[in-house]
Design brief:
- The protein is of the alpha+beta class.
- Helix content is 46%, strand content 18%.
- It has a two-stranded antiparallel ribbon with strand order 1-2. Strands 3-4 form a two-stranded antiparallel sheet.
- The protein is elongated.
Length: 153
């Protein structure tokens, strides 16, 4: 693997790793059992850049693991708040689907202000079937899953 750097006024501004095909990482810890692949560009024997599929790279896999562990931890904390009656199930689904009220608003057409109100359990409990269905559709689940956190409580 060659390293190419650029300097401007004695400051390093770019680091580019030029990989040969055989240097493309193939650590299958996370992506190995799926059909998902990362695409890298590497230099072949003729010096041409060619696309090369990779099943993963250890630092990237570790970063993904840490990120998902944090998301799962946050989701479990919110799930406990839902079970305790402090938040509505909508808060849990926002977290596990990695959405914000603004993003959910763009999917459902429901205002961010209303979505934030619907995070309160008493308001969520009074929602009509049409609003619940819009949320369920946005999350790709049915209304029963939306109300029950998607599994047995």
């Amino acid at each position: 693997m060659d390293i190419v750097t650029s300097r401007f006024a004695n400051r390093l501004i770019h680091i580019i790793y030029i990989m040969k095909i055989e240097d493309v990482p193939q650590d299958n810890k996370y992506l190995g059992s799926t059909t998902i692949r990362d695409l890298y560009y590497a230099v072949d024997d003729k010096g041409q850049y060619v696309p090369v599929a990779s099943i993963g790279w250890e630092p990237q896999s570790e970063a993904l693991r840490i990120t998902w562990d944090s998301i799962i931890e946050d989701a479990e904390s919110i799930r406990q708040e839902v079970l305790a009656g402090k938040q509505s199930p909508l808060a849990y689904h926002l977290e596990i689907h990695l959405m914000t009220p603004a993003l959910l608003s763009s999917y459902t057409g429901i205002s961010r202000k209303d979505i934030k109100k619907h995070l309160r359990p008493e308001v969520f409990a009074a929602l009509d079937a049409d609003v619940l269905q819009r949320y369920a559709d946005a999350f790709g689940i049915d209304i029963n899953e939306l109300k029950s956190l998607g599994h047995e409580d």
